[in-house]
Amino acid sequence: YNPVAIDLRFVLAMLKINTNLERLGDFAEGIARFALNCHEPALDTELVKQLRLEEMIAQVLSMLELAKQALQEESQELATAVFAKDNMLDEINAEATAILADYISRHPESALSCLNLVSVLRKLERSGDHITNIAEEIVFFIDAKVLKHSGRTDEHYLNDKK
Q1: What is the Cα–Cα distance from 148 to 65, expressed in whole angstroms?
Q2: Are 67 and 135 in contact (CB under 8 A)?
Q3: 56, burial (CB in 10 Å: exposed 0-12, middle 13-18, buried 19+)
Q4: Alpha carbon of residue 7 to chain centroid
Q5: Which of 54, 55, 83, 130 sits CB 3.0–4.6 Å from 20 for a disulfide?
Q6: pLDDT for 4
Q7: What's the pLDDT tens digit per position in 68-124?
Q8: Between the CA of residue 23 and those of 26, 47, 86, 126, what are the distances in Å?
Q9: pLDDT tens digits for range 109-155
């Protein structure tokens, strides 16, 4: 058996994907610690809705599933679909600061929980970035294209394929 370029790309991609998965595990642990240490009876459901927290969690899980499927099927199209989903996470995270600042001004007793929520939102946003890195590595493995630092989006990539 003589290894070829795709074999080396596979090994390199898996090493980098492993690092990203380890970071995702660290973020999950941090979020779990917040849930365990939250001393308030429950988070304000209206605040959670305003922050779009459930939507953010669903988006991260969807991105992770999409990346897994892209790797299993060796699909560039599925891998590049992850990129657009990350933009939504960035948007939700960017809106959260103003929402939480307003909430703290109206409910100062919840300031600590709100500050911890900022950390949770940031961890979810960074999770999206790491899943995007995984998708980039999948594209590298499959197509030998390096997307990192190129400023390319899924639309740019798919247009180049045509």
Answers
A1: 21
A2: yes
A3: buried
A4: 27
A5: 130
A6: 79
A7: 999 999 999 999 999 989 999 999 999 999 999 999 999 998 888 889 899 999 999
A8: 5, 28, 16, 9
A9: 888 888 989 999 999 999 999 999 999 999 988 887 766 655 555 44
Q: Is 72 left (phi over 0), alpha (psi -120 to 50) or beta?
A: alpha
Going by pLDDT thresholds of 50, 70 and 90, the confidence category of residue 7 is confident
Q: Are 19 and 130 in contact (CB under 8 A)?
A: no
Which two structure tokens, joined as six digits, stand for 95? Answer: 């809106």
Tokens describing residue 74: 């060796």
C-alpha 40: how far from its chain's center?
27
83 torsion bin: left (phi>0), alpha (psi -120 to 50), beta (else) = alpha
Distance between CA atoms of 106 and 87, rounded to whole angstroms? Answer: 30
Show the beta-strand stretches assigned E in the chain: none
Token pair, residue 25, equals 């595990």
> Which phi and psi (to 5°) does residue 145 adopt?
-105, 130
* Cβ-based neighbour number of residue 74 at 10 Å: 14
